[in-house]
Amino acid sequence: MSSLRIGVAGWDYPDWEGVVYPPGPLRGFDRLAFLSRFVDAIEVNSTFYRPAHPRAAASWARRTARSPGFRFTAKAHRSWTHEADSRPDEVVSPTLAGLAPLREAGRLGALLVQFPQSFHRTAAAFDRLARLLDRLEGWPVVVEFRHVSWDNDQAAAWMRERGVGWCVVDQPRLGGTAPARPRVTSSIAYLRLHGRNSEQWFREDAGRDARYDYLYSPAELAPVAEIARGMSRQADELFVVQNNHFRGQALVNALQMKRLLQKVRPPAPATLVEAYPALAADVEPRPARLF
User: Which element (helix H / strand E) includes 271?
Assistant: First the structure.
């Protein structure tokens, strides 16, 4: 198998207090450093809203130094993907400059370029993507397509020719959403689990928490783990990232995936096991004071 890194998207959620993290304010408690003891990777999602400051990225690398195998992935800024009239030459540089300290420290596993459901496979879309990728040469790029029109072997071949990774998406299957087909188009494979909250997925007034409020059952995780195993045989490195973040459910499922794929009983925050007692069968609880 490839180098396998299982993790979560984000780490700074208010609803994780008392579930993932100890309750109440704790002087000197570092959420990022704490979480990096339990997962192999964290996807930085704040960079979707604003480029990271280089000092912040350098701090992230420093605060996870006690976990040498740990890696970050980071989402590209929304102007690359969600704003049709943006100019790549104006919006790419700040993001790359902000992430440079992670890259220089050997801690950046992938740069995730996430297109929305409205981005369909057309000639204009390929042209836009090609112009963007030209500006990312040399960076470990993975692209996420959510619309089913991209579920296409020719599109995958186009990506493979450019050495760009394909993000396999597990999401609610609703009309035009793409299935979780195990495609690998570069040395980096990426599997992203958003949850399957069909009721909230396309509801216009659904907030981020509602949309990603979902806990995969063991029966649902088992076939996804098989997809991951197949992908791992085709890549040098595989990231499996849980994005169903609400109330720490992403970490619950990430630890269960570690049990399935890495054949270990991973450590887990004791507060998480208290919140989700069924998790006790798969993990070794660790009180926060040990960290």
Answer: helix 270-275
DSSP tag of 243: -
Give me 81's structure tokens: 């993907």
Q: Are 51 and 81 in contact (CB under 8 A)?
A: no
- Would you give the end-to-end CA distance of the chain in angstroms? 31
Exposed, middle or buried: residue 89 (CB in 10 Å: 0-12, 13-18, 19+)? Answer: exposed
**Dist. CA 28–CA 164, nearest whole Å:** 40
Give the per-residue pLDDT at 289: 64
Round the average pLDDT of the chain to a whole number and report it.
93
pLDDT tens by residue, 20-57: 999 987 788 999 999 999 999 999 999 999 999 999 99
Q: Are strands 71-75 and 41-44 parallel, antiparallel or unpaired?
A: parallel
Task: For residue 167, give the H/E element and its range.
Answer: strand 165-170
Residues 240, 117: Cα–Cα separation, whole Å: 21
